[in-house]
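ugh ok fine here u go
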Amino acid sequence: MAARGPAAAAPPLPVQAGDLLGGRYRLERLRAERAACSLWRALDEVLARSVAVKVVPVSGRRAAGGVQAEEIREAVSRAGRVTDPRLARVLDVDELEVGRGRYCYVVSEWLDLPSLGALVRAELLSAAQATDVAWQVADTLHQAIRAGACHGRLHPGNVLLHPGGAVKVTDLEVARVIAREDAEISPEHRQAQDARAIGGLLYAALTGYWPVQPAGGLPAAPMRAGRLCRPRQVRAAVPRELDSVAERLLGLDPALPAVDTPAKAAALLQPLPRTPPGVGGGAAPEDRAPSRLRVWARRVVPLVGLVAIGLVSYLVGVEVGRVPPPPQSIPAFTAPTPSGGASPFAPIPVSAVSDFNPEGTGPENPQAVRLAVDGDPATAWYTSRYYGNPNFGGLKQGTGLLIDLGSPRRIRAVRVAFVLPGASVQLRAADRVGADAPEFRLAAAMENTPQTFTLTPAQPVSARYWLVWLTRLPSVGNNTYQEGVAEVAFYG
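structure:
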């Protein structure tokens, strides 16, 4: 069988809340929908329990491309051979025909547990906790291989954590089939893929970045000189021994023997200090709303105290772009007043905005950039988190927002509100988009900024493209640096 290409966009699935599948599974709530499948929370009316139902469009047996129902059934069968309690159980699989479309639905146990990805967005794990999670997953997949199954699509979103720190791995075998992975890859190669993904989980738990393809729901791991940065280069607190283990698992040094099975990965991790993460139940892995995660934080750390709760809530707010109560409230965001009796400033509308991060560390929260120009200083776009020093952990010179005014406009002042004081920022302008910050001419700059301030060029500057370029970040505690841009407004 030839390798399949990326999944094409599927038409809307002909199922909705309230539908009954197989005479027993009542769909209750859509939790996620993608081209490859939709995920529902459903009620098993026979056993009166919640279940997860994935509905997947399938092709005919002889059709070229597409997922076939037989492939999904075979994947479910392989996954069903594994009895390890750390694997989410697959309960049922069947087919569904609606009109001219064919679908396969896979039923598994419903787990109201946070994913590793959701947890590290809020707060990174300690070295011992990260090691324990990676070891648990490695040992689980070693047991799966002994029963004839591999994962093939392991990432932080399908590793869930119980309140006591035990892992629950979801989507064994099934995820790679739904994603249309190449069926001709040998079992040995799949084991090597799983071993490298275990290294990716360790990396993600330590740094908040994902170093493996395909994407794992976290920002891509930073690169330096064309090479993946080791965990210790991203977060200075990572122990050297653990940094070396992550390097081995990810295969960053070809001179070292390959770690090409989960069993070898488990053996490498087992001697290291390990502590189960003290996580708690709460938000389901699909829920990312800050209020739900703040509830999770209150359940997880009641004994740590109000300071820890505030830190978790703050970092969760950072991730989704909503500003939680900062150390100081943001001063009122008002238009600047010209000095010396000059004519009043006139607001200039923003046509488009995007993150500008040319130095190879991946996108900087592109989904939240509009929050910096939405007229509401209670929302913000945030940079990624950096560790070790305020100069982006030594990884790059800066990052920022690229703002398009739609046409060249004469700008006399730019009003900015940051979430935290203490950043350094430059205002740069250009008639066309450059590949790097120096290709934009410097219009104004400020170091050690207050929360709300005005950047005023010495003379009015006419340009279409403007760069709010951060060159130094304030501390958010724990040797971590980050800034949020709550509002940017232009005046002519």
